[in-house]
Give the backbone structure.
Amino acid sequence: MKNMNLKKAILIVSICCIAIGMISCNNKKADSNMIFPKGEKITNTNFTGEVWLNNLVQADSINQNAVGSVTFEPGARTKWHSHPAGQIILALDGVGYYQEKGSPKVIVNKGDVIKCPADVPHWHGASAAAKFIQAAITGREKGETVWLEAVSENEYNK
């Protein structure tokens, strides 16, 4: 009887290990389809929701542009902000939103390109139902990003 319980326990542990391994492999496969690794989770107050940043290029004296891959989980977004030298957003995956102050919200799909004019307040992030991955190319020659107020739930859902 003791031998039978031990065999059952070993079988259960083996099945659990296989299941965990399969889930882990499937998660790795999903991440391996990403163009760039997810990067580090952003913990500052300039974002709502879960957002990750992978700094791909730091602005320096040779090239004044910073480039980052940003992953927004569903519902995640930036605060209103502006860029003194403008920004270009390349939609890499998912469905996102982009809005300039005084204009309607735009739905952004994989393959879309958004040109954010210099000094124009705007926000961007994921749609409510899908994650959104973008490459952001930001000119730094005229200064850093200017962060403004949070995007309200009403603004986000409009």
